[in-house]
Design brief:
The complex is a heterotrimer of chains A (130), B (152) and C (284).
Chain A: E1 8-14, E2 33-37, H1 43-53, E3 62-69, H2 70-79, E4 89-90, E5 99-102, H3 108-117, E6 119-122
Helix pairs in contact in A: 2-3
Chain B: H1 35-59, H2 74-86, E1 96-99, E2 105-110, E3 116-121, E4 125-130, E5 135-140, H3 147-150
Antiparallel strand pairs in B: 1-2, 2-3, 3-4, 4-5
Helix pairs in contact in B: 1-2
Chain C: E1 7-12, E2 29-34, E3 55-65, H1 73-81, E4 87-90, H2 98-102, E5 113-116, E6 120-125, E7 128-133, H3 141-158, E8 163-176, E9 189-190, E10 193-194, E11 201-208, E12 211-225, E13 228-241, H4 248-270, H5 273-278
Antiparallel strand pairs in C: 1-2, 3-7, 3-8, 4-5, 5-6, 6-7, 8-13, 9-10, 11-12, 12-13
Helix pairs in contact in C: 1-3, 3-4
The chains are: A alpha+beta (130), B alpha+beta (152), C alpha+beta (284).
Chain lengths: 130, 152, 284
């Protein structure tokens, strides 16, 4: 059952997908892209969640969390050259009850547009490794 | 992960902030036979891109990331260096390099008009995307020499 | 096209007829091949055998990437080799936590485990598998070639190699109580005078025919002669092909053969003729 378009979702952005200047075009590319629901877990708690389960220091570090409104993302899909109806399906996991997936096969071009639309939150200073 | 110069002196690799430049105060002995490639990567990509490429090649093993990440394809790396030898990036542009979950290398930059150019090097070929004319395409690994012309 | 000291362009133009429609014209293929750097004269004849045999170890090595984690790989391989390789040995590096091993690029291609019998050792790691002769018991290329052909077939059955990264042949030779620099065609000078030093180590990289060779020569090592340790010289030559220049399961052995030929050409090309004569070379 797809999530309502009014929800906000987030995606972990690690150092393999962001180099400080640009974002990887493949941040959302492919099928079943993982996202997380802010309606289940607030943004502040996502930092610890992602640091524990997504980042693998020293080579892969969580650097940002990208946030997007599902409705806004769906409009991006509809306006893309090759229209794609984007949905987000809940997929709770043991370590993340807010986990969800985007089942559609997202192209690189569309991935880039979604990434541009996202609001990016940088890792709080107190969570950066000293 | 550092995005710049991987310093071998500190074997524990306690990187500080992952994105900022690290002071270049140490040396590194490259893999035999690769000094020219390292020089090429440093010249064309800058310290950040060269450091990231080094990390992708050496530290991202099977199952990286959320468990499904594939190690970087050696054929993709080979094609990547061949392309670097052929391309001239716009002045003052240092492109960005990324690793996909499938083990491909992505290279992204903007042309003189500020439009995105994106390449993805895999074990079977190179996918390209040119934002200015929304052109996408694929070339085989043996057709790399044609790629700079396609990107004009 | 940027100038590069390393790169040269090989232009390969296939048949072209101006009356053929554009869509049917053959593509002009441009290959990018690093320049050969190989200042060694290859002898006309290469010995099959020399006596005494200086070969300490011969290693045929495959570097690869795998979608399998290291914990699965030995279990995938061993069922296919266990009848011939009944003994195994964990190498010290295997006891390092994986976190630490992952963080050092110098050891990422090192083996963690060995399987062995009386003739050979198979060593394997997360990104490498190799066939090595038992030290100081070199059986000849024909026998190694046969064993490697068998091993490649087992590796194919085990199905853990996703993509080949490097195919290499390494020979390590030890010359007891000898300064090898006096016996090879390699001249060095310091301040205009011939360099003759009691502790001298030289390492360089050569290139020929898409193969890369790392040559390391030293006149100050300790090795085994007979069963006793002694000082002497080391000649360590490692030659390899990169990922686009071989397909392990299609032409792997043919490529190993080509690499082995370059190893021999380099070794015998560097030995001075009068030194080679003292090694009683056999050409048949």
């Amino acid at each position: 059952m797809a999530l309502d378009a009014t929800e906000e979702i987030v995606r972990a952005i690690c150092s393999d997908k962001f180099d400080g200047e640009r974002y990887s075009p493949s941040l959302f590319k492919g099928e079943n892209t993982s996202v997380s629901r802010l309606s289940v877990i607030p943004l502040e708690e996502h930092w610890d969640l992602f640091q524990k389960n997504v980042q693998v220091p020293p080579e892969r570090i969580l650097v940002q969390i990208g946030q997007i409104h599902i409705g806004a993302m769906q409009r991006v899909g509809e306006e893309h050259l090759t229209k794609l109806q984007l949905t987000v399906e809940p997929d709770p996991l043991d370590w993340n009850p807010g986990h969800a997936v985007m089942p559609q096969n997202i192209s690189k071009g569309l991935s880039k547009k979604i990434t541009k639309k996202m609001e990016k939150h940088s890792i709080p200073t107190h969570l950066q490794k000293a | 992960m550092t995005t710049t110069f991987p310093c071998p002196v500190d074997k524990t690799f306690q990187f500080t902030t992952p994105i900022q430049s690290a002071p270049v105060g140490c040396y590194q002995v490259p893999v035999p036979g690769e000094i020219d490639r390292d020089g090429l990567a440093i010249t064309k990509l800058g310290a950040r891109g060269w450091g990231r490429l080094h990390h992708f090649r050496n530290y991202y093993n099977a199952g990286w990331g959320e468990g499904q990440g594939k190690p970087v394809s050696p054929k993709a790396v080979e094609a990547f260096y061949q392309f670097l030898a052929l391309i001239e990036f716009p002045a003052n542009i240092k492109p960005s390099i990324f690793l996909t979950d499938q083990g491909s290398l992505e290279l992204c930059w903007e042309n003189e008009s500020g439009n995105d150019i994106q390449l993805e090097f895999s074990s079977t070929g190179i996918e390209y995307y040119i934002e200015s004319n929304e052109q996408e395409g694929t070339l085989g690994l043996l057709e790399i020499a044609e790629l700079p012309n396609r990107l004009r | 096209m940027p100038e590069s000291s390393e790169q040269s362009i090989l232009l390969e133009i296939r048949s072209f007829s101006p009356v053929v429609p554009k869509s049917k014209k053959r593509k002009r293929r441009i290959q990018i091949i690093p320049k050969d750097i190989y200042p060694i004269t290859i002898p006309e004849k290469l010995p099959i055998k020399i006596t005494p045999c200086p070969i300490v170890e011969a290693i045929l090595e495959i570097r690869f990437v795998s979608n399998e984690s290291w914990t699965n790989i030995p279990g995938l391989l061993y069922p296919h080799i266990r009848e011939k390789y009944t003994r195994d040995r964990k190498l010290p590096l295997a006891d390092w936590p994986e976190e630490m091993r992952r963080q050092d690029p110098d050891i990422v291609h090192m083996p963690l485990l060995q399987y062995f019998n009386d003739q050979y050792i198979i060593q394997i790691g997360p990104r490498v598998i190799g066939l090595m002769t038992i030290p100081n018991t070199y059986p000849g290329w024909a026998k190694i070639e046969a064993e490697m052909t068998w091993l490649i077939a087992q590796i194919q059955k085990a199905n853990f190699i996703t993509e080949g990264e490097r195919l290499a042949v390494r020979y390590i030779d030890f010359f007891p109580k000898l300064d090898i620099f006096e016996n090879i065609s390699l001249d060095m000078q310091m301040s205009g005078k011939a360099l003759t030093l009691p502790e001298l180590n030289v390492a360089t990289v050569l290139r020929k025919d898409k193969m890369t060779a790392r040559l390391a020569i030293s006149n100050s090592v300790i090795g085994i002669a007979g069963k006793e340790p002694t000082t002497g010289s080391l000649f360590d030559l490692d030659v390899w092909l990169g990922p686009q220049d071989f397909d392990l399961f299609q032409n792997g052995m043919e490529k190993f053969g080509a690499i082995h030929t370059l190893v021999k050409q380099t070794f015998f090309g560097l030995l001075k003729p009068d030194f080679l004569a003292t090694l009683k070379p056999s050409y048949t």
